[in-house]
Write a structure and sequence with these properties.
heterotrimer; A: 300 residues; ABC transporter involved in vitamin B12 uptake, BtuC; two-stranded antiparallel sheet; C: 262 residues; Rossmann fold; 2 domains; six-stranded mixed beta sheet; binds adenosine-5'-diphosphate; binds magnesium ion
Chain lengths: 300, 411, 262
């Protein structure tokens, strides 16, 4: 039973990270119907930025809490800037082009960014400082769930709540929903579509960066390639929950996290990634609209 | 003329990129020795580079927009291939030169060069195969390398366990590739285009992970060594001769591929692929079975990947899962995109450029993958038709003399 | 007279929106029927439902092919509907833009021909013969539709009116017994519209193909149609001969009340 709980909580942590990345996929897809393959790389760049900033601050003798805050902030700012720039360079010129073109461009961007970090930094795994604080009152339960894991789960919940609020109740959120429904109509009714799309990329990228910082300090290692697999898995989560839906992304992340956690715990850990991919393939074949998505008829 | 406003814009762009790339490009942490390297030179390079590139970028954008307008006005220049094909003497002499060069190549250059050229030729085959799937049918298959792996492993294993020879394995590899293509394609081809991309990517990874982990079957990460080279009526060959022989086998296969793909793309099947790429709904409404047509393209593409895999295994005599990563799929995709989706000469050129250039320009080889990524983006933004765009066939018909009337789309 | 298309009580819901509401409609052999109504009435949706692109929530679609018994075609895939002899054009032109005009028409022959992969790769005699027949037949259709001077142009380079005609040519290539035209005159100038009028009559008279068309140009509708169906908000509000429709108060109200300049 304890093993079960351990796996359950492990899955919850994993799932939270997937959810954080999946949110970006889902929002971008909702608005411009593009699988932003480079999204996983944004997450990786967020983690790298945090690592670099944290190292510099450590050498300068900052205290732990301020390092955590500043490093996370920088990760969010830079990741958002990358997201913004990528959209302008690689996707915006292709808005009227066939879908295939934008998709290929996105894959190109993903490969480009991976190798950019590889060349500018290193191909080795870098140790990531444990930034997250330890809570004394969780000590007795540490063998089941560490402080870091608690922080991850709580942060995810917070981010999801904030995003839901943003989309449901703010002007920007309204403009985003309008653009997602019908871009031309939104444009006609005075929505600045370019700005809305930029914002979507910025918010999605910032969320991914938070995920990047959390997972990196939890696992303690990063390299240039972590974004690729995480990206595919987060996309799986997004599709699983119903692409375009914020609660769907979180739910999908959790389901995927648990699937992986239980499958590796009870079946075999050699095939960890195979489980995720198999789940992706199955969901796309049998319920492509996802758990929370509604099936729609493509307009002819 | 460069105006002040433009300079201002470029300065802003340059400042933005200096900010953007600052943490990654300038700072490098060595966490073990706890030292930080500040690479200020990189900052200057980025600043100056992005300043200059922003002008080029804007110029290219303007040119592209002007090109689009010209296209709308109908004043499009016909593609290069068409202009060459319209002059039979020129095109014949080009073909003659290429044939002559190809024949004498192994006797003029070292074994090393021949090996590299053979590698490039394998990529030509792979590119032409993927071109059927992406270029003609418009299906973004990101797991193409899986079929390549199927071909390579089927020869390696058959050779290892049963001593099956190359010439038997070659069609078998193609067949197995097709079989896998159908098995994988059948469930996923009903999906929308972008979902197809990610599912095929997933499948590609699944196959590689299985090869890596299922030791009893595939010998895991250590791979399979000592695979037989192609035989020639049981004659023993020196390494040199064998290399040359593989080269000519590949030339033969490439010619065969070009021959078949060319026939296919101008046939009933090929037209259906292109129509499917152009407009799936109209295509169905015109009576074309979407799933079946896609499956045909998928399976045929896989057939060529399977055969290329067999040749690869025979050429290197050693394979392991590391040769079949997603990056390999990405390289093949870059070949097709750079050359021109749907264009046979384009894909051949794309393969030769992308495989040979990094080999000969050593300085390039570190930057190979970043270059491929960049090419994918830049080609899509500025030249989606590739270096050499495909041409549509002009048909001859009864009742209107020998030559079809040309509506004036150029020529 | 026996209907060749008989749609009974068809309903189509999109989420909460009822785009078609228990619609009955039939087309008789050899007639030109028109389906009119304000924008958003559900006319295109009706076409999409009978051609298999949408699956209607309810209702029956029956067709009677020449010399055969009536059959139900609900749930058939779009390509099978076309094989049975229903061909259509699209309101928002959907040509294969980067293929030549001739090739666009040749695509229409796909479902009436056989050549497979092996035949194409080996260029067997049967494949070559079939190919030539397709080319000749397609060219012949283009001549009749009046597009032969564009044969080798890419479809995207055609003038607008010619693109609309090419859609008709492509649909004709599938050998239909019923042709469904979705706003064939949209965007045409008066001259082109007159030529279209002649063309549609010619198709019916010379090829014996029945026609159901959606159209906003009342002059064209009145000149062509044997019978007219009027829709509003997914419902059929009137049907009858052009004269009956012209004087039907319900129709006048639907048009004047909703969309005065249609
Ligand atoms: N695939 C779809 N999903 C949701 N609503 C649709 C879809 N297709 C059509 N509709 C809706 O059905 C109604 C009828 O549309 P349509 O058939 O195109 O009208 P018409 O052709 O008469 O102008 C419209 O309100 C339209 O928005
Ligand atoms: Mg309509």
């Amino acid at each position: 039973m304890e093993y079960f709980i351990e796996l359950f909580l492990g899955g919850l942590t994993r799932g939270s990270i997937y959810a954080l990345i999946a949110l970006g996929y889902t929002m971008v897809y909702g608005i411009i119907e593009l699988i932003n393959f480079a999204h996983g790389e944004i997450y990786m760049i967020g983690a790298f930025t945090a690592l670099i900033v944290a190292s510099v601050l450590t050498l300068l003798g900052f205290n732990e809490l301020s390092i955590l805050v500043i490093a996370s902030l920088c990760a969010v700012i830079w990741a958002a800037s990358y997201g913004f720039t990528i959209e302008k360079l690689a996707y915006k010129p292709l808005r009227k082009a066939p879908r295939l073109s934008a998709l290929i461009s996105a894959i190109g961007m993903s490969i480009f960014l991976q190798n950019y970090v590889l060349l500018a930094q290193t191909s080795d795994f870098l140790p990531f400082p444990a930034l997250m604080p330890e809570f004394g009152f969780l000590e007795p339960y540490a063998h089941i769930m560490s402080s870091a894991e608690v922080i991850i789960v709580l942060t995810t919940a917070l981010v999801m709540a904030a995003l839901t609020f943003l989309i449901k109740f703010t002007r920007l959120g309204k403009a985003m929903r309008a653009t997602a429904q019908d871009r031309d109509m939104a444009l006609l009714s005075g929505v600045n579509v370019n700005r809305v799309i930029s914002f979507t990329f910025i918010i999605g990228s910032a969320t991914a960066a938070i995920g990047g910082v959390l997972i990196a300090s939890h696992i303690g290692m990063i390299n240039f390639y972590i974004g690729f697999i995480a990206g595919i898995k987060a996309f799986t989560a997004a599709v699983l929950g119903g692409i375009g839906s914020v609660p769907g992304a979180v739910l999908g992340g959790m389901v995927l996290g648990w699937t992986e956690s239980f499958a590796t715990g009870y079946v075999s850990s050699d095939y960890e990634d195979v489980f995720a991919f198999t789940l992706l393939v199955l969901i796309l074949i049998f319920r492509p609209e996802g758990i929370l998505g509604r099936s729609t008829t493509q307009k002819v | 003329m460069i105006t002040f406003a433009e300079i201002k814009r470029s300065v802003l762009v340059s400042l933005w990129f200096m900010f953007l790339t600052f943490p990654i490009m300038v700072v490098r942490v060595n966490p073990i020795e706890e030292v930080i390297e500040w690479r200020w030179r990189n900052l200057i390079i980025i600043g100056v580079g992005s300043f200059a590139i922003s002008f080029v970028w804007r110029y290219m954008m303007e040119r592209k927009e002007a090109g689009l307008k010209r296209k709308e006005a109908g004043g499009e220049k016909p593609p290069l291939v068409k202009r060459i094909m319209d002059r039979p003497r020129l095109s014949r002499s080009i073909v003659g030169l290429v044939v002559a060069f190809v024949c004498v190549f192994p006797f003029l250059f070292s074994t090393y060069q021949v090996t590299i050229m053979s590698t490039a030729l394998i990529y030509v085959m792979l590119g032409l195969g993927l071109n059927i799937v992406i270029g003609l049918a418009g299906l973004l298959d990101l797991g193409y390398v899986a079929f390549y792996a199927v071909g390579a492993y089927s020869y390696a294993l058959l050779n290892f366990h049963f001593g099956v020879g190359f010439w038997i394995a070659l069609p078998l590899g193609g067949l197995l590739g097709a079989l896998f293509g159908i098995l994988l394609g059948f469930p996923v081809l009903r999906l929308r285009g972008d979902y197809l991309a990610i599912v095929t990517l997933g499948f590609g990874e699944i196959i590689r992970l299985i090869l890596e982990n299922w030791n009893d079957f595939s010998f895991g990460p250590s791979g399979i060594a000592g695979i037989s080279r192609p035989g020639f009526f049981g004659i023993d060959m020196s390494l040199n001769t064998a290399t040359t022989y593989v080269y000519f086998v590949l030339i033969g296969l490439v010619i065969l591929t070009v021959f078949f793909v060319n026939r296919l793309q101008n046939s009933r099947i090929g037209r259906a692929w292109i129509a499917l790429r152009e407009d799936e709904i109209a295509c169905q409404a015109m009576g074309i079975d979407k799933t079946r047509t896609k499956l045909t393209a998928f399976a045929l593409g896989a057939t060529w990947a399977g055969m290329a895999g067999v040749v690869f295994a025979a050429k290197t005599t050693f394979i392991n899962p590391a040769s079949f990563t997603f990056l390999e799929s990405a390289i093949i995709l870059s070949i097709v995109v750079l050359g021109g989706m749907g264009s046979i000469p384009g894909v051949i050129l794309g393969a030769l450029v992308l495989i040979l250039l990094p080999e000969y320009l050593r300085a390039f080889s570190d930057y190979r993958m970043i270059l491929f990524g960049g090419i994918l983006v830049l080609m899509m933004v500025f030249r989606p038709q590739g270096l050499i765009s495909g041409v549509r066939r002009v048909y001859q018909f009864k009742g209107n003399g020998e030559k079809a009337p040309n509506g004036g789309s150029g020529s | 007279m026996e209907p060749i298309l008989d749609v009974k009580s068809m309903t189509m819901d999109f989420g909460g929106l009822r785009a078609l509401d228990r619609l009955d409609l039939d087309v008789r052999k050899g007639e030109i029927a028109a389906l009119i109504g304000p924008n958003g009435a559900g006319k295109t949706t009706f076409f999409n439902c009978i051609t298999g692109l949408y699956s209607p929530t309810q209702g029956d679609i029956l067709i009677t092919r020449p010399g055969r018994d009536p059959e139900r075609i609900n749930g058939l895939k779009p390509n099978h509907v076309t094989e049975k002899g229903l061909a259509r054009t699209f309101q928002n032109i959907r040509l294969f833009q980067n293929m030549t005009v001739l090739e666009n028409v040749m695509i229409g022959r796909h479902c009436r021909t056989r050549t497979g992969v092996a035949g194409a790769m080996l260029r067997l005699k049967s494949a070559r013969d079939e190919e030539q027949t397709v080319v000749d037949h397609s060219y012949h259709i283009l001549e009749r539709i009046g597009l032969s001077r564009f044969v080798n142009e890419l479809a995207k380079n055609l003038p607008y009116g010619a693109q609309r005609r090419l859609e008709i040519a492509r649909a004709m290539a599938t050998d239909p017994f019923l042709l469904l035209l979705d706003e064939p005159a949209a965007g045409m100038n008066p001259q082109e519209t007159r030529a279209l009028d002649d063309l549609i009559k010619k198709i019916r008279d010379e090829e014996g193909i029945s026609i159901l068309l959606i159209e906003h140009d009342m002059k064209l509708v009145m000149s062509l149609s044997d019978r007219i169906f009027v829709m509003d908000y997914g419902r059929k509000i009137a049907q009858g001969s052009p004269d009956e429709i012209k004087n039907d108060p319900k129709v006048i109200k639907a048009y004047l009340g909703e969309d005065p300049d249609a």
